[in-house]
Amino acid sequence: MKCYAAVDTNVILSGFWSRNRQSPPVTILHEMVGGSIVPLYCEGILLEYDDVLHRPKFHLPEPEIATFFRAIRKYGVFVNPIAANEPFPDPDDRIFYETVLARQDAQAWLVTGNTRHFPQMPFVVTPAEIVAILGIDG
Fold it and tell me: 47 and 27 in contact (C-beta within 8 Å)?
C-alpha cells in the first residue's frame, strides 16, 4: 500500500540520528525513498528541512543531506499548501499541516513526533502509527 505524507522535520532528524535501524523514523526515511511513503513537499518544507538539517549542533554529513534532498525531489510530490486557520504552538509546523490539507483528495498523512503541536485530526499520526497503518516491517 502506498500513501502520501508530509513528514515533520523532527521525524527526519530522528531518522538520521537513530542508532536503531529498525526504529519507525528510520523506517520512514527508507520508505520515503521509492517505498510505500510518497513524500509531500513544498518550498516551505524544503526550507525547514534545509535549515534544521544544516544546524552545526546536529553534525549531519553534507553528502547524506544532499542524498536526502535528491530523494525527496525524485520520489516526492510538490504541493501548493492550503491556508489553515487553526492556531499552532510552533509556527514552523503550520506548513506541514497545510501541505497535507492540499492533498486530502488522496490518502495523505502528517507524520510527526509532536502530535500535540497540531489540531487533533485523524490524518495527524506518529511515526509508529504510520508504520503500523502501512503494515511496514522495520
Answer: no
pTM of the entire predicted model: 0.95
Q: The CATH number of the domain where 96 resides is what?
A: 3.40.50.1010
- Total tally of structural domains belonging to the chain: 1
Angle between helices 43-53 and 62-75 (to 10 degrees): 160
| Count of C-beta atoms within a 10 Å radius of residue 1 | 8
Residues 23-39, mean pLDDT to the nearest whole number? 94
Q: Where are the extended beta strands (E) located within the chain?
A: 3-7, 37-41, 77-78, 108-111, 124-125
Query: Whole domain around residue 123: which residue ranges?
Result: 3-134
